[in-house]
Amino acid sequence: FTRNTRIDINRGASPDFQWIKINVTNRHPDEEWLLEYAFSGADTLVYYFPTDAGYDSIIAGEHRPFYERPYISRNFVFPLDIAYDSTANIYLKLTTNGVVQINGRITTHETLLETTGTDSIYRGFYYGIMLIVILANLIGSIYARNMTFLYLALSAIGNFTALAAYDGVGFQYFWPNAIAWNDKAPAFFMFFNILPGILFVKSYFKATHSSKALNIVLSTARVVAIVMSVVILLTDKIPEYVTFGAIFDCLCIGGILAYCIFLFKQGVKDITLFAIGWFCIFSGIFFLYLQSSD
After folding, report:
1. Residue 232: which of 244, 221, 222 has the closest Cα?
2. Sign of CA dihedral 166, 172, 174, 176
3. Residue 234 CA: distances (Å) to CA of 67, 193, 229
4. In what order do the strands lie in the sheet with 18-25?
């Protein structure tokens, strides 16, 4: 074991087991202590804790059904039963096909409830806005009989599912027992969610300012998205797919924004709100990927 002096560690992509040793002393007899491992992407996480007979273990991770976890949380939470004024070693054995992130803390049950509640409020606010956007555009597409609204609603659904798959919300609420699908979902939605966005852009610019070059770029992006979505469904999870998917999404949206800037310089003022919307999507994907890579 190598002593760690940082709060969190990024070990890069590695298929090997990672062992984590934690030396714990309990100096507060009246608290219910918990160990929270804040990396929802761990494929297999084995928690070893001391008992009177030696050591016992709890197996968790994304390769097990969600509701088998000791505590219902996006992160992995384990009981930390150390006698008052005593010291013990606990161990974690981690494996994942993606980037290895080591980030945990020792907390109390009350603090965990508070932080989980705050996290749920923020995420609920974001997902709630997305649902409003989806419903508003679905109603608009029916009322106005305009496919542009439908494409925008489908694009919002794509971003909703991509984020849910990426941050563990999808595994918790939508497919808690679909282990194989949960492996593929983040990479799949990275590519698939761009398809309705491309249809929306083509529909929008067809009514305003289309060009041959834009149509070629969007058609190429659509083919790449379809091919990669199918490849991901037919193969095992490969970590590079998620990275490629994030880069692909950013390139597509970056190209759309560049075209918006070009039109704006040509005197097309009604493109501003369109560009702001896509910039928000671009920023969300970019910072989401940065957060997962820290």
Report:
1. 244
2. positive
3. 27, 18, 9
4. 18-25, 87-95, 44-51, 54-60
Residues in the chain where the model's pLDDT stays below 70: 1-15, 97-101, 206-210, 237-240, 268-275, 277-294
Q: What percent of the chain has pLDDT over 70?
A: 80
Q: Which amino acid is at 285?
A: I
Tokens of 113: 């409830």
Residue 16 is classified by DSSP as S
- 16-48, pLDDT tens digit by residue? 778 888 888 888 877 788 999 877 778 888 999
Tokens for 119?
């996290």
Cα dihedral 97, 99, 104, 110 sign: negative
pLDDT for residue 294: 44
Neighbours of 4 (CB within 10 A): 12
CA distance 67 to 239: 25
Instruction: At 109, give phi and psi (nearest 5°).
Output: -65, -40
- pTM over 0.70? The answer is yes
Rounded to the nearest 5°, which phi and psi values hold at 178?
-90, 80
Please give the torsion angle defined by the CA atoms of residues 173, 179, 183 and 186, in that order, rounded to the nearest 10 degrees: -10
Q: Which residue has the tokens 């709060």?
A: 7
> What single DSSP character describes residue 7?
S
pLDDT number for residue 58: 92
d(CA 149, CA 18): 48
Q: Give the SS3 label for residue 4.
A: coil
